[in-house]
Amino acid sequence: MLRRVTQHTLALATSLFTLVCAADGQLCPQWSPARPVGALDAATIPEASGLAASRRYPGRLYHINDSGNAPVLYLTDAAGAAVGQTALPPMKDSEDLALGPCGDGTGRDCVFVADTGDNNRRRTEVGVLVVPEVRTFPAEAAVWKRLRLRYPDGPHDAESLAVHPVTGDLFLLAKEFALLPGHGRSARLYRLTADVWRRAGTDRLTWEPYGEIDLPALAAKEGATFSHVATSMDISPDGKRLLILTYDHAWEIAWDLADGPPPPTAQLQRGRDYQLVQLEPMLGKETIAWLPDGKGFLQGKEFKPDGEPSVLFRLDCSAP
Length: 320
Known about the structure:
This protein is mainly beta. The chain has one domain (about 1-320): Neuraminidase (6 Propeller), CATH 2.120.10. Helix content is about 10%, strand content about 40%. It has helices at about 1-25, 195-200, 215-220; strands at about 30, 35-40, 50-55, 60-65, 70-75, 80-85, 95-100, 110-115, 125-130, 145-150, 160-165, 170-175, 185-190, 205, 210-215, 230-235, 240-245, 250-255, 275, 285-290, 295-300, 310-320. Strands 1, 2, 20, 21 and 22 form a 5-stranded antiparallel beta sheet that branches. Strands 7-8-9-10-14 form a 5-stranded mixed beta sheet. It starts with a helix and ends with a strand. Residues about 1-25 have low confidence and may be disordered.
């Protein structure tokens, strides 16, 4: 009997510890190994490039293909099985998805589609589609806003879009591709405040520089050779932690972007401010999304780089 009580007490303490860490915006004490939860249909989503998990409709996931495919927002269940789709307006290079508050007085969320890819860094304008989330999507999406955007410092290639769940601000992280960390540059971060984008009409807006994150420096410090190029990003449901996906692993960073730009990367301490999250080896890691409760996340890949199934993996936070 004593043993059972002790085990129950330990389990309860572990659960409370995990909940407290998540509530305080601290790093996850320990991430579970990645486990497959399903796979996407390669016939319809061959180049999965964006992923978001609905908070309003439990078990619903959103997906987008990379450029070269039809502009469609795909809906699946939690295992990646198709449940619906809605056509989007033409885009040049769709790269990421994010979910966040519409801020239109309805209390609903919107799906944000990043048309921000620019491998050759030549685009004078990028864009973000804002699509209100509904229970049943029509054949053609009812786009609320089509944001026209430019950078203040010239073109960038960017595949990482996130929306702050509290403020509604948009954040975009530049890709800054380099084969090895030693040749890489800090990833520049940009912001578009909710007040600006929600009032936007057809005029072109300008991203606001919002600091940078030196992923090559972190990768070199941790000996994570290919963890220096950002391919996707998401903000935790409480707004206090970032997940940044790379071609190798993911970075969890304990920083609320509502408090200001991230501090200089050299000041970040492992275990307090950031940690490297180990992922399964695979080519084409392009998608990452927090789960609605903030206690886990999903990570996926494209099908085309290696011809292997586009498997969705789940990692959960637990106490050590």
